[in-house]
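For this section, I looked closely at a protein sequence along with its fold in token form, which I now present.
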Amino acid sequence: MSVINTIGRRKTSVARLYMQPGAGSITVNGKVLDQYFPSEIKRIIVNQPLVLTQKLAMFDININVDGGGITGQAEAIRLAIARALVDNAAEDKSVLKKEGFMTRDSRMVERKKPGRKKARRRFQWVKR
């Protein structure tokens, strides 16, 4: 198996992933996963597909992610890892799809409308 290249997106985040057989190291933008995501919850989100398929220590994963915030980036990485696992072994697709890891979350921020304070919030009305 050579290097598997996949992409994952969430909100405005884009994660490009390169996966190859190895000891199980995950680097994000040149940093170790624990340094890039100090929050335990974000690390759990990133590792969910690997834990589900029991392939946590089988691959070295290098990820370049940009755009958005840390939640969007973590979920974009999760989608990229799930797609890479399916490219490696097609029998994992049904398990990952059942958990919802193969579907791109298409929800985006609603745009601000003119005459409003935010997308839906109106300006405060003053009687006197």
Observations:
- The radius of gyration is 18 Å.
- The chain has four helices and five strands.
- The helical segments are 33-36, 40-52, 70-88, 93-99.
- The chain has one domain: 4-99.
